[in-house]
Design a protein that fits this description.
- The structure holds two protein chains of two kinds.
- Chain A is α+β, with helices and mostly antiparallel strands.
- Chain A contains eleven helices and 23 strands.
- In chain A, α2 (32-42) packs parallel to α3 and α4 (146-163) packs parallel to α6.
- In chain B, β4 and β5 (164-182) form a beta hairpin.
- Chain B is α+β, with helices and mostly antiparallel strands.
- In chain B, the strands form four sheets. Chain B has a six-stranded antiparallel beta sheet with strand order 3-2-1-4-5-6. Chain B has a five-stranded mixed β-barrel with strand order 7-14-15-16-18. In chain B, strands 10-9-8-13 form a four-stranded antiparallel beta sheet, covered by helices on one side.
- Classes of the chains: A alpha+beta, B alpha+beta.
- Chains A and B meet through β2, β3, α3, α4 and β7 of A and β2, β3, α2, β4 and β6 of B.
- β3 (89-95) of chain A pairs parallel with β2 of chain B, so a sheet runs across the interface.
Amino acid sequence: MGPGSVGSRSGGCGRYIGVTALLERLFDVLDDSLVASTLDTALLGGADFAEVFVEDKRNSSAFLDDGKIEELTSGRDRGAGIRVVSGDTTGFAHTADLSENGLRNAAEAAAAAARGGGGGVRKVSLERQFASRDIEVETFPETVAKATKVELLQRADEEARATGDAISQVSARYGDSRRRILVANSDGLLAGDDQVRTFFSINCVAQGDTGMQTGRESHGRTVGFEMFDDHDVSEMARTAANRAITKLSARPAPSGAQTVVVGPGGGGVLFHEACGHGLEADLVAKSASVFAGRMGEQVASPLVTLIDDGTMSAEWGNFAIDDEGRPAQRNVLIQDGILTDYMYDQIRARKEGRPSSGNGRRQSYQHLPMVRMTNTYITAGQDNPADIIASTPNGIYVAQLGGGQVNTATGDFVFGMTEAYLIEDGKITEPIREGNLIGNGPEVLNRIDALGNDFAMGHPGTCGKDGQGVPVGDGTPTLRVTSLTVGGTAA
Amino acid sequence: MADLLSTAQKVLSWAKDNEAVEVVAVHDRDTEIRVYEGEIEQFTASESQGVGVRVIADNRQGFAYAGSLDEDVLAETLAEARDNAVFGTPDEFLGLAEPDGVAVPDLGLYDERVAQMATDAKIDLGIALEAKTRAGDPRITGIESADYVDSISESALVSTAGVEVTSRDSGSYVAVTALAEEDGDTQIGFGFSVNRNPNELDVERAAADAAERATRLLGATQPATERVTIVFDPFVTAQFLGILGGTMSGEAVMKGYSLFANRLGEEVASPLFTLVDDPTNRDAFTAGETDGEGLASRRNVLVDHGRLNTFVHNAYTARRMSAASTGSAVRSYSSVPGVGTRALFLEPGTQSQAELIAGIDNGVLIQGVAGIHSGVNPVSGDFSTGAEGLRIRNGALGEPLREITIASTLQKMLGDIQAVGNDVDWLPMSAAGVSLVIADVTMSGS
């Protein structure tokens, strides 16, 4: 992503009482001098750029299914990934051994892989940099008793089953993670972050005369256990159960071209997949994007402003620094239909002589960073959502899209509809069964003819690219697309 | 492997009298080389280790894992698993896999040539792959990625139930994604070659496949909605089999998440359809000598000439359903053993894809599908997926089609199978590919 607000890069922040304590927390993952000497080793071959990424991650999860807590799982991953860039070649090695020896071996392996020419000694002097964030975790997950986490699952299970006799099966998942990272590079950067995530999801199966249907609800925030102060698991359970029960009376989805109204928060994934990926600079550079070479052009309806924002408080794709040490940014990608910027990581940005947009992310220390989205959304418009539906004679109302896939070279996409209804004579009528929506990203952007004033974020997601998954968020207001292809079974 | 085994045994030696413990330890070494415009774009040399510990005490289960084999980490991992077990719901069917006397096959899955091959030779494979793909057709305008990848994996699994197994296997593949352009239209296509011995990788074929897949869709248009006969390309069939396999796991059936629950012994598909899960076939990418609980791998016939023969089980689902484990526990070191098919294979027919197509008046060859996982309901069997492919008219391939969806139900599709091809293709997936002809599918377009 491109311009937009930039998080502060240095100095403390008045909102924090214990800045020193926080800095200690961020930087005690690995000793500064050991990081610096590892960078020196990585640069011995004469590389242009070297980076050390250290990660210490703990996570815990609990799963309930069929009325039983199946098991609690605890995980610990700790290690360093070392990247060395020579010319256009990146060498990468990682190690779980954070001793001086282990780090030196990995640095040498990465340098050898990068095959730098020249040689010579470069000393890196590191300067600690601090990116502010506007939220602070209140209750770290490791301070919460396991029994308390398990109790959430049992409460959700009971509440879902109590919602209706039709509910025949319930599963629910609790998950938390705390990921401390430290990034240092040969430009002298030294930055850290302490990323906490809390997640809860519930799936219900309803059994009726027409078979079984499923309903789901989930929440995920970059906060601690206080997430449950705002998101009551009982309410989530009722929502998921009612979704499943509603679908029992669903008709087969129609097939062919339809006018589609997407509800608030229900369709952000479409813009993430069908537009966002095509605005990632690594794909653009290889011309593997329909948006390559179109900067400054009208690529969408004038109603559309598309933003990727890593600074959105507590949203699932939020962070203080990205996995290359760059502060999160808010980047406007499409403004009033005009393509204004792509998203960048460090490597692509260096090649193009511009700063990274704070979109360099990786799944873990075992992975190379690449251009990734954070929280991607269409901003709210002017229309009353009720008017949008009332002015749609016939079509489909999609309350919630499911998973999808996009071919970035063509912009063609496919999404499942997990909750959808018919629109008949300007009214939402009967629920319809699951089916796919297919279309083309650039075409959909141009076919948006109404945008509601009711923005909402969608559910927490994991975006997969080149085999790596990272947490992302998305959002939309109510919006109408004049034509999309629905793959249903009804004639 | 000896180190891994002794590490796992050390953790096991800390087990208390009243608890059942299972320890899995793994060590992976991977090389990934990505080439762009004749140069190495990324070279990754990775080495990773991990341990997973499962504890069952008082009929409760707990689990913990760590990406390290350091001694203090091992002790902490066991302690966490033990603590986690306190919070599980008691379940009398929980338990470790008991050795069942089935001999572990020797499949020879490790080829030392992966370790022996010079780094430069691996790089050269990547460079050749990119160059040949670019040269394959004048309409190829770019290469999104051209990769050489190899891996060597070792593991050890021990348990207080008396299981003690080790394994070592190797793999390598090349994969390329090409972009083709003509008259302002861009299309994308992939090709790959897989082999346990990197010297046997077929770069020519990978390059040719990518060029063909990308160029033959150029100029694709969206057709009108109609009912047609479809031919799944082998790669698509493999994905379809993967979906079916998911509905045949003991867990899905037990929990009521499968359309096949209560249908054992019934006719569920055309008699042409014989589906086997066989991780003992060395040709399979996901072949393995043991399963995720250390039991011997075995060949399981899931559907025999259309009749549903068995589901697949791990120790837990077998106990719950009064069956025996089919050696189908699947896991990584960071998860408890689940259950699933491991190496699916559809018994081939006699005709090539070209011969199958020659017998179809009006149909579509489905070259790729998108969103197949979100578009299939494993409980109701509803099936709807995005697709692209080529029109079949009067027995010959015609114009390319895009932005279509194909929809039916799994039940109906299995019954409407007209033929299985003879073109078995071993893919880098947990299912082998083969051409498959299915009648009367709704193709939605404009």
